[in-house]
Design brief:
20 helices; mainly alpha; two-stranded antiparallel ribbon
């Protein structure tokens, strides 16, 4: 995820997305999906092809539309700048012509993530069919190996272990699969499972931000995840949330850490090496400072009226851990163990919240 909306086309797409989502009709929600698809497709063409502007891209893929008129003035149909900002959706013919020039661009437009996100349709029984459209790495993480070799798609018995393996892959196919799993849990009225999957989904999204194509459309995808999926992860007053400022800061630092480890030859140079290391960092198996600074944290759902005490304690203690972790990173000091000062702050926060809850309960018991 970029640290700011760095291009005019990105700002335009985000504005259009938010307007469609706020309006909320099925027509506008489908329009939002079209914006996402077109943005992903357009940025894939720019990143993979030789062109670097909408004009150059159009001239490369549709040279016949760039010509002189009868007055010898150059003109074109000006559709490519509209594709760039999501105002116009490419036709099947345009998608085919783009595919002939930039291989696999059609698959970027038809990526399974957009069908997994579609808020106008329940997942229902479509879950396995959607996951089958992901690459083999994701499928092997979710489906049992032997039946899969025979063409039978049977989920592994431990959804938590399967989801953790998917999060470690950390690409857009992994994000799509976890979106499916979160929505399945929500539709099954299992908020506890949806909450646990929400953490893994946000972790996979952060890891995916190491990829360039996810960086340039990170805000758009983040908006869609926040509006349509992360709100389903509420459990006992807590949920996971796409926080654009905090997530951008975490993604930027994560890329720096991974790059430094790669430069020092402490990890492999391949994308899967980077994703695996990022998963170890975000899951707390690398070191605690990076874990507390960068990992997704549960926050109190603002719409919940009565948040349980243990949830408020958990949220507050995560805030304290994150503050300490970022202060430690900025200082450049190494912290192999949690300092006693931090442990005391965590205990004091718990004591204060429990005392406040007890006092509030006592006041409510006093009859007028």
């Amino acid at each position: 995820m970029a640290t700011q909306l760095s291009t005019h086309r990105q700002r335009s797409r985000c504005t259009a997305l938010l307007n469609c989502m706020i309006e909320g009709s099925d027509r506008n929600l489908r329009r939002a999906l079209d914006i996402l698809r077109t943005a992903h497709w357009f940025e894939h063409l720019l990143f993979t092809g030789s062109a670097r502007t909408a004009y150059a891209l159009g001239k490369l893929i549709q040279p016949d539309t760039y010509r002189k008129n009868q007055n010898a003035d150059r003109f074109n149909h000006n559709l490519w700048p509209k594709y760039a900002v999501g105002k116009h959706v490419p036709s099947a013919a345009v998608l085919d012509r783009a595919e002939a020039v930039v291989q696999d661009s059609r698959s970027a437009f038809d990526h399974v993530l957009f069908d997994a996100l579609d808020p106008t349709q329940n997942i229902g029984t479509r879950g396995n069919a959607l996951i089958r459209r992901t690459h083999p790495g994701v499928q092997h993480a979710i489906f049992e190996a032997r039946p899969l070799m025979r063409g039978t798609f049977r989920r592994r018995s431990s959804w938590r272990r399967a989801a953790s393996a998917v999060a470690a892959i950390g690409d857009l196919d992994a994000v799509a699969a976890l979106v499916v799993m979160v929505r399945e849990a929500a539709e099954s009225n299992d908020p506890k499972r949806a909450h646990a999957l929400g953490e893994l989904l946000q972790r996979a999204f952060l890891i995916a931000s190491l990829q360039i194509i996810a960086i340039v459309t990170g805000y758009e995808l983040g908006i869609a995840l926040e509006f349509w999926v992360m709100r389903l992860t509420t459990y006992r007053g807590l949920r996971y949330r796409i926080d654009f400022i905090e997530d951008a800061k975490a993604a930027f630092h994560l890329r720096g850490v991974i790059g430094g480890l790669d430069d020092a030859a402490e990890i492999g140079p391949l994308e899967e090496d980077h994703a695996r290391t990022a998963h170890l960092i975000l899951s707390g198996r690398w070191n605690e400072v990076l874990h507390f600074a960068l990992a997704p944290v549960p926050v109190i759902e603002s719409e919940c009226v009565d948040v349980p005490l243990e949830s408020r304690i958990k949220a507050r203690q995560w805030e304290i851990r994150r503050e300490w972790a970022w202060a430690t990173l900025r200082s450049g000091k190494r912290a192999p163990f949690l300092p006693i000062e931090l442990i005391n702050r965590l205990r004091e926060a718990e004591r204060i919240l429990k005392a406040d809850a007890a006092a509030s309960h006592q006041r409510s018991d006093i009859k007028p």
